[in-house]
Amino acid sequence: MPEVANDVRGDRAQDGHEVAGDLDPVRALQHKLYRAAKQCRSRRFHALFDKVHRKDVLWAAWSEVARNGGAPGVDGVTIGSIEQAGVGCFLDELHAELGEGRYRPLPVRRVTIPKRAGGERHLGVPCVRDRVVQAAWKLVVEPVFEAGFADVSFGFRPRRSAYQARERIRAGLRQGRRWVVDADIKGFLDPASHCPLGAGEGVKQPAVGLGDLDTQAFSPSGADVDGA
To answer: What pLDDT does residue 189 have?
Structure first.
């Protein structure tokens, strides 16, 4: 089973040079995509979907999903049941469905949790198979987008955290900066705002069309998720 790729830029030796020969195939793929996107910001990638259903990519995606755990989706299939039946067979079938264009995501299961400030938040729990496909898509596409992010961006990026953002603010204070602007977008994940933004980002690269992706991934959290 391949190791999960968690650094889209690849390994680096102490002198800062890449150690491409030490990378597993998935991380080598990510490294190659990152470097290509970084070297030419205007480049458009036209052959990415075939990499999403590569077996090593699917194994890496499975590793991430299995490590994260989580509840089953509407089909009731758990991570444990897949492991008991055989992960290899599960991924072989998923590989065939994706390669032959037969893959169709299932509706997500609705879960409601309370918000800290009051009210409720609607969450969608995808089936395990769909989470694997989403993770595989992320492994392939993330390096392309990662190459274009600003160095001051810390949210939801590999090997970046809120603690690093805090240290960047502290460094600014030591340099004499005194203003901090705290801004938030109200209802960012609500139906009115989430879907258009997510879909727009999803089709930025011509190689990734909405027909290739799990459309539930770009659905608002409160949308119809029961198949109706």
So the answer is: 60
